[in-house]
Write a structure and sequence with these properties.
Radius of gyration: 19 Å
Structural class: alpha+beta
Distance between the termini: 50 Å
Number of domains: 2
Largest sheet: 7 strands, mixed
Amino acid sequence: MPSIEQIRAARALLGWSQSDLADHAGLSQTGIARIENGTNKPNSSTLTKIGNAFDFADIEFLSNDGLKRRSHKVTSYTGREGFRLFRRDVLKEAQTNDNADICITNLDERQFDKWGEGEVNEEYRNAMAEIRQKRKDLKFRSLVKQGDTHFSAARHSEYRWVPEKDFGDFPYYIFGNTTAMIMFEEDNITIFIIDHPLITKFYREQFEKLWASSKDPE
């Protein structure tokens, strides 16, 4: 977990204000200020949120209060909190990348309903629908198994059916230079986020082949 010195240094490296860090970590600016000036000793949960926010921004913490940027990385997130962090990254892509093209395949929306139940899904889907209304250049495409009509993200995503034989074992997202593979278990979810343009190029090409051979739901 990051030390106070590393938190300050990481913010400086990224050019983040205390408010920026608070927003990325899901904390308050006052709380960040108190941590940094030593008037509040953070618990492990708070430090984990701060650490995840910096990890998401490609900051790696080293021994002796050191840190560095990562050029390419593989990150994993677990559970409901990890799902929230992952969706924040997808939203960021939609908000900031001109001509963003977000693709999902092997999708069973019921699993997303489960792990984002309540505010996680509501905030994400409302925000994405608003972005879609404002940005006509945004593409959001989802491939589901033929016959599946459970379209929870219909306000912002276009859906197509793929034959059952072409439907994979786990869903993956493609956005920007990132590929995210999602593993659902009975009592857990793990998301592996691979930040590498060549790997993402390969998976995007696979998606485009499936999309071209898929059909609109009846």
